[in-house]
Amino acid sequence: MTAVAEHAAASPRIVSLLPSVTEMVVALGLGEQLVGRSHQCDFPPWVADLPVLSASRLEPGGNSAQIHQRVSAILAKGQAMYSVDPQRLWELAPRYILTQTQCAICAVTPGDLQAALADWPDPAQRPEVIAVEPEDLGEVLQAIRDVAHALGVAAAGEQLAQELSARLEALRLATASLTRPRVLTLEWTAPLMAAGNWIPELIEIAGGSSLIAEQGEHSPCIRLEQVVEADPDVIVITPCGFTLEQGAQALAELSRRERWANLRAVREGEVYLIDGVHYFNRPGPRLVESAEIIGEILHPTVCNFGHRGKAWLKAAQVPASLP
User: Could you say which architecture CATH assigns to the domain 179-317?
Assistant: First the structure.
């Protein structure tokens, strides 16, 4: 085997169609092997230079309710939320394609790849598809190990998982003896959805007590009456796929709902808006930063990781129009 061939074998070409897995690949030290990405992958910033292989069929813009209606209409027709460019994928000739099976609404799934894989120019060179499906925090850490093992860097995966676990444990210990506010995290605002899966665990690690949603369970749709009954001490709003600017619009819409102003958290100014694109909703390495954000919100005298103003804002300080 020539030196070039050996290098190619040791450095397989990777396409990632999931933002959280792109972040895993980079954190594992394999960023240089990425040759393509999804339209959603945007971190680290340099991945924006990679070829884009997917597109959303969802019409851009609109508020939470309008987006929900459009998504429902697409799914009701039995259509996929995303398309994949087969020609460009074939040209890149990856050895691995990384994606997910958890949510057809959130990102490309193996089903969206079927046509491109079935018509692969050389079936003998068809890439291996690696799909993750974490439901809770432990499974996110295991997904890191699994991706690392599949890509031939198992030791790096174990080290990364241990480092992330250590940071979470340090946060848990720092907040363990503090008062635990009752926290409701909203993943969507029209309809209301309480954030489930790994997010209740992040709340507990950061020194809070999570309400309504359950660890390891998908985010449930809820009624405002349930929020009123729970009457949380703190409300965290982190709309999936929304930047702070888009979240500000969702927050404004919530504030106009009947009975919202009577909630304890609203009266006491304990409502917070978080960047839902990059934090909480990406089950990858930056879930640690997501836990740190909650720590800063709930226990600011103990936790200061520098996320305030960048990743989250207090609702009362959210301007009508964010830059």
Answer: 3-Layer(aba) Sandwich (3.40)
Q: What is the mean pLDDT of the chain?
A: 89
The full set of domain ranges for the chain reads: 3-133, 179-317
- The secondary structure of the chain, three-state, reads CCHHHHHHHHCCCEEECCHHHHHHHHHCCCHHHEEEECCCCCCCHHHHHCCECEEECCCCCCCHHHHHHHHHHHHHCCCCCEEECHHHHHHHCCCEEEEECCCCCCCCCHHHHHHHHHCCCCHHHCCEEEEECCCCHHHHHHHHHHHHHHCCCHHHHHHHHHHHHHHHHHHHHHHCCCCCCEEEEEEEECCEEECCECHHHHHHHCCCEECCCCECCCCCECCHHHHHHHCCCEEEECCCCCCHHHHHHHHHHHHCCCCHHHCHHHHCCCEEEECCCCCCCCCCCCHHHHHHHHHHHHCCCCCCCCCECCCEEEHHHCCCCCC
The pLDDT score that the predictor gives to residue 36 is: 97
Least confident of 39-43, 121-125, 137-141, 194-198: 121-125
Asked if 3-133 and 179-317 have one fold, the answer is: yes
Q: What is the pLDDT of residues 132-187, one digit of tens each?
A: 989 999 999 999 999 999 999 999 999 999 999 999 999 999 999 999 999 999 99
Q: Is the dihedral of CA 63, 66, 69, 75 positive or negative?
A: negative
List Cβ neighbours of 213 (8 Å cut-off, separation of 6 or more): 185, 194, 195, 196, 199, 200, 219, 220
Q: Which fold has domain 3-133?
A: Rossmann fold (3.40.50)
Q: How confident is the model at residue 121 (pLDDT cuts 50, 70, 90)?
A: confident
pLDDT of 2 reads 35
Amino acid at 9: A
